[in-house]
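Q: What would this chain look like folded?
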Amino acid sequence: MKRNTFTKLLAVGVAGAFALGTALAQDSSTTTTTAGTTGVSSTTTSSMDGTGTLTTLSPGGNMMTVRTTTGAEPTTYYYTNKTTVVDPEGQAVQISQLRPDMPVTYTYAKEGDRMVVTKVTLQKPLSFYEKKETTTTTTTNP
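A: My prediction, written as structure tokens:
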């Protein structure tokens, strides 16, 4: 009798773990349908998350590249004026303050053949990256 109860509990635990893993691995999806004088169109976008290190930022081209692992080639993402950038505490950061070698977490959506970043979160505060310059002056007495 005890073995049968243990088997049932084990089966329920495995099923629960599988369901939780499946739920966490899903991407969110939004479908927008518009109707106009030219007909009806439907667009589906899925948002996905990523983590990596910023390698380049092109302010004029609205592009950034992120390397997800050390040996991987950087992936190109596009950003818009709707893209939000925040520090780890959630404070807004100007996109112009981003620099290469900053570890980031980001959310992006595939729009056509482009991957557009909607949110970038710095993993370390901006103060971590500020360069502090020190000057040492030595004087000798005659």
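The longest strand covers residues 39-58.
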